[in-house]
Amino acid sequence: MDDNGTIFLLQSRPITTAENSKFLSFLPPGEGFWTFDPTHFPRPLSPWMQQYSFDYATNNSRRIGCLIKTIKFRCIHGYAFTQPELFPPSDFEKLERAASAYWEKKLYEDDYREFTDFFRPACERLQQELRIVDPSALSHASLVEYVGKCYDYALQFWKLHHIYTMPCMAVVGDFMNRMSALTGKDTMEALTLLEAASPESRGILNKQDITLAKMYNGIKRNEKALELLRCEEGVEEDTDYAEESGERVEKLVAKWRDALPEDKREEFDGILDVGRRFFRIRDERGLCTDLSGVGLCRRGIMEAGRRLRDAGIIIQAEHLTVATKAEALSLLTGDLRNLSLEKMGPVDVPTSNVLESRFLYIKNADPNSVPRSLVKRITDNPSKVVGISASNGAVTASVVLVLQDSDLQCVKKGDIIVTYSSSASFNMVIGLCGGIVTNYGGMLSHAAIVAREYGIPAIVGTQFATEKFKTGDMVTIDCSTSSVTRISK
């Protein structure tokens, strides 16, 4: 255990694998340290997703002069582990020249234009190819072909997600550092200037979304559609608050700018402009690729699952969503020659918190090489967690514990969401939330982005919030102390 409280789990021999998670073997998938990644994958990945364990974040690494060559991604019993791989020292001089060129020649502007003018439209065309097809209207033969296409496109969307990871992270990080150096403010304070810079993160309340605008204009002319959508509790934007939020950012920008010498204000404007433009890519790259694209793929696979269920081949339609492409097509065509059939009983699936209490890193090593220090565990106070303040403010409200997709349906206006980590798929309910609390994530995580976008309090990286709080608990989020405290059950 190191001084930061990181646990190093050492294994010198395999542990017998069993259906009980306590006896699962978590031998490293390769040499070196492998980091458990519950931030992106708090639950086990499906078998078809596991087979695509590959290296990601490799795009643009060399071009921007990043020392990280790639991030290896592997699965053990469905749980995701990652390992950064650095470029060899012999490449450092070339990387230094590449980094100098990237910033001095402003090559990041090429990345931005490519993303907005070509990448997003191309992703939309791929989605449209899937969207225009009604799977329920397809013949069996056509559905088999369409399902194969869905599996192929899902993998493509997953890979596309990572193309702009390096540019958006590097440029936003550069914004934080340069703005901090210029103004003397903390790097985390600098992020407050990016509030309302990511309209896509507003989900259904994004007034800049052309498609949503068309849907709204069509629905408001159809009284029957309006009647179906009416309910006692809907998502309604607080326009006064939205205006206040925009005015608050404008005033903050003006205050910081006016405090600078006049000859530094043009530099301030340039840094802010680049930061706000690239900040939105952080969420948009996922929204225009796997989050929406894979959802469309799932639609086709679910239709196939329903037909297989009705034919008595599988028990539930949802079961097909964990099948590999080969398994799904074999079930649809009746060709089972390449399938290995085995009976599976109930499997104990541990939560990421349970697993993380057992390890963060795994490696075969000499126990004498492990740093000895006390490990940071759950705080002594059973009613309080401390994390990272991702936004400003405080709020007291009822908790909704979101551990799976269906839990999102329980969120009501003003509730505080407590979850492992959030993604852009949470956007549909963020407009209802009074606050967000996550076990994992940092200042540039999705929860942090949407909290600043909506101007709601958020504490991220608490590690144990999902263990300490339950649905119905009344808690107070206080961003001034980076804490979440239960006041009643």
Describe this structure in words.
This protein is α/β, with parallel strands linked by helices. The radius of gyration is 24 Å and the shape is globular. The strands form two sheets. Strands 7-14-13-9-10-11-12-8 form an eight-stranded mixed beta sheet. It has a six-stranded mixed beta sheet with strand order 1-6-2-5-4-3, with no helix packed on it. The protein has helices spanning 47-50, 61-64, 92-104, 108-131, 140-160, 165-183, 187-190, 210-219, 223-229, 239-258, 265-287, 290-310, 325-333, 352-356, 427-430, 446-454, 465-468; strands spanning 8-10, 34-36, 55-56, 68-76, 79-86, 361-363, 384-386, 388-389, 394-402, 416-419, 435-438, 458-460, 474-478, 483-488. It has four domains: 8-102 and 349-356, no CATH class; 106-161 and 290-333, no CATH class; 165-287, no CATH class; 384-488, Glucose Oxidase, domain 1. Mean pLDDT is 80; it is low at 8-18 and 357-378. β13 (474-478) and β14 form a beta hairpin. GO terms for molecular function: transferase activity, transferring phosphorus-containing groups. This is Phosphoenolpyruvate synthase. Pfam families: PEP-utilizers.
